[in-house]
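Project standup — Tuesday

K.O.: blocked on the structure for the chain from last sprint. Re-posting the sequence here as requested.
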Amino acid sequence: MSRRLLFSIFVFFGSALAQTPSTLCPKVDGAQWTFDHESTTCWLLGDRMLNFNQSQAYCQANGGNLASITNLDDFNIATSYSQPHLLPPWTGVYYSNLFWRNLDGSSTVKFYWQRGEPTMYGDCAVFRAPGDNNSGLASVPCNNLQYPLCKFVPTICPSTTMLGGVNGTFTSPNFPNGYYNNLNCRWLIRAPTNKSFISITFDPYQVDTPDDYVAIYEGDTISSSKRIDIFNDPSNQKNVFESEGPIMTVLFHSDSDTTDVGFSAKYQAIPDYPDIIQNGTSGNMSSPNYPKEYNNLVDQSYHMNGPSGTKIVATFNVFFTEYEYDVLYIYDGPIIDEQYLMLNISGLPKMPQSFESTKSSMSMVFMTDSSYTEQGWQMNWKAVQIV
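H.V.: unblocked you, prediction finished:
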């Protein structure tokens, strides 16, 4: 996306940017800070004429500093505050130890100076925009009286955001009104117990891929070896991701160019159910928590293994689940695969019912969704000699 040059009509002491004030800017009585969405910076033109040192003190009193001019965004915004009919405002550029530099210590670039500047006329810099395609910094004496041009760079993602609990949600900054440029936001999600894993769903997800992206990592470390996936392919419709363990880290990166609506994410800590395996000639199995209600988001596997030359007869005495959403899948043999699926059961079928395998093993998987639970089910099994 091409950068916009901000040559807006300026109302004296008003805002030069077509943006609304943001909660990201300093809150100081009487200070009319304006947030620029594209550069993610806040700007303020002072309401009094001061010398250079007084102007820096004024900006600091209002929560910022005299404006450094370090990139094209700064240059364009300073241009919009420096229309030909105004006195050029102070910037945070000054001469020290044979170099021109910003108050934050960064050096200036020749491109940001007017043609023929800097001169030996002064040791501090204003920003001029005479309207003849010669906008830029200009050196003047530091005791001149000019209006201060203040800048504040908000920290939008100051540190890793810690998330926990059984479930929760989070969004990209400023969702759904469009995220900002130059973000590197992190969320660390920790399940309540170590015997859980994290499932995360992004819906909606409107990001300027591939330049802006979400990356998902196993554990609390950002490293390529721990990366579960990266959400940067516009043709990839996948929006659900899972960790193996109880901790997941999510990174959202945006570059300095185009932005979009952003995303909303919902995470859930899902208990990690180890396989239940019973060997021998008989046994009994049930849904988790039976006779109390089972949990949401169950993914529990069961295996019954009889002696060679037998078949498994499973008799269900009780069965009550959410119809079509909480389902028990029954497989012929030890392998859980669609080709061996005998049947699936859900709802409130008439009981008791019995089912037989053709092999000495039978397997089952009980899967539930994220809403509504019921009493579940209970069954007995036995190994019967094949005649």
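K.O.: great, moving the ticket to review. The first helix runs from residue 52 to 61. The chain has three domains: 34-152, 161-271, 276-385.
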